[in-house]
Amino acid sequence: MNIGIIGAGLSGIVAARELARHGHTVELIEKSRSVGGRLATRRIGDGKADHGAVYFTVRGEELKQDVADWKTKGWVKVWYADPYPRYVAVDGMNTLAKRLSDGLTVHLNERAETVTTRDGQVSVQTDVTTRQYDRLLITSPLPQTLDLLTDFAVDAALRELTYAPTFVGLFEFRSEIAIGPDGILDTDLAPGLLKVINNRQKGISATELVSVYMDESWSEEWYERANEDTLREIERLLQTVTGSAVIQSRQLKRWRYAQATDVWNGPYYPLRDEPIFLAGDVFLEPDDASGRTRFESAYVSGIRVAEAMR
């Protein structure tokens, strides 16, 4: 079959790899300039800073086997354990996404605009061209996915799932600083601060780059404010951790759909009587004890939807 996948984040990449392994022709459509979605890393000067997923943990056997292979290849490593190992990608989380997507057909900087079906075929109109498929998988955040499916019947409960935004401030320091023993602080922080990460201590940056993650309520409150005002306030809060250490550059990343506030009870969603499937980190297996979106839920969703589509 000829299969299209909208969204080249982890779920889309994992599904594409599985479908291609079973002999299908697969291509991914990605609106950004790189694969990975929230497996995001930014170069700043001579350093790197993750500004999406901070790390990932492993519970299930399927991911455990793949992670063992990735460790052997030198793609991932254990950052620290508390009490379970926190894995990070060598050279940044986006590098892992690029390695996993190596060999796949990916159309970058291409935005899907409409989806239609006719005679069992799916047509995707993008801002570049029209693409035809036997089956389509959509893995973008649900609000963006549902914008493409306004003319299709979708479970009302799925349309009611909501997302919270997150701000991430990226700060380059002039001299070395320590953020806790392992490069992360996520407790006893000033209100609004969720996590503070030193990417040098994390092992991905040659320079002193700190990623500051703001919590959901703070990000919601500040989302419509000017970027400069928002960045200035994040810096003020960061200084409760770093004191008078000199900051020489600062950047802001806003994730509109950073974290789903609800989840779907099932690892994927097939549209009734249509060759279209939905997947992503919001789609959890019924026995998922964590009940929250994360790296592994995106991975498992990609595996399960590929099994259903092939």
From TrEMBL:
Family matches, as InterPro entries:
Amino_oxidase, FAD/NAD-bd_sf
* One Pfam family per UniProt: Amino_oxidase
Q: Which Gene3D superfamilies match?
A: 3.90.660.10, FAD/NAD(P)-binding domain (3.50.50.60)
Q: Residue ranges of the Amine oxidase domain?
A: 88-309
Please provide, alphabetically and separated by semicolons, the GO molecular function terms listed in this UniProt record: oxidoreductase activity
What's the superkingdom here? Bacteria
The protein depicted here goes by the name: Amine oxidase domain-containing protein
Q: Which organism is it from?
A: Exiguobacterium chiriqhucha RW-2
Output the lineage of the source organism: Bacteria, Bacillati, Bacillota, Bacilli, Bacillales
